[in-house]
Design a protein that fits this description.
3 helices, alpha+beta, Beta-clip-like, three-stranded antiparallel beta sheet
């Protein structure tokens, strides 16, 4: 855990088997934090859809070209973005996977373009990590060079391959 994380004051909102939802007192942002240590490759929790929609919004995860899900369990909506992610919503296995070692108390974060082809709302990332991408967009609008640095869902990989094949035709 970095020293900057130690200086942030949080209040606990809810406890779950492997994680806890906390709210940053200063900026009121919620986050999901590990209640235990995880190793790269561990499954943290299985997830499903509480609702299926055909257009993305800030709470959905994309599972196919026209299918976006609201996460169940609902507390998973508090997994925030980071350009150096430690988890991936694997939409093939429907499991939240650990993609780098996580210490107890560490915030769970994923790379939004790893699951989203077109994002509902672009935003400027403030993760402060050395690999910060800056403007966060869907995978369709993120360079191949950047995407190749991340573990992506099977859906995003297939869309990227289809898009590249399409570009080669012209």
């Amino acid at each position: 855990m970095s020293s900057s994380q130690h200086s942030i004051n949080y209040i606990t909102i809810s406890n779950h088997e492997h994680c806890v939802v906390k709210k940053n007192i200063e900026n009121q942002q919620h986050g999901l934090f590990a209640n235990a240590a995880f190793k790269n490759g561990d499954v943290i929790v299985a997830f499903n859809a509480s609702k299926i929609v055909d257009t993305p919004n800030y709470l959905t995860v994309q599972v196919s070209e026209h299918k976006h899900i609201h996460l169940f369990p609902e507390y998973l909506q508090y997994v925030n973005h980071c350009c150096e992610p430690n988890v991936l919503f694997n939409t093939t296995t429907m499991q939240l996977e650990c993609i780098s070692d996580i210490e107890t108390g560490e915030e769970l974060r994923f790379f939004y373009p790893a699951t989203e082809w077109k994002i509902a709302q672009q935003f400027v990332c403030n993760c402060g990590k050395p690999r910060c991408v800056g403007l966060i967009q869907g995978a369709a609008d993120t360079s191949t060079e950047v995407l190749n640095k991340y573990k992506l869902t099977d859906f995003i990989k297939s869309m990227a391959a289809r898009y590249k094949a399409f570009l080669l035709l012209f």
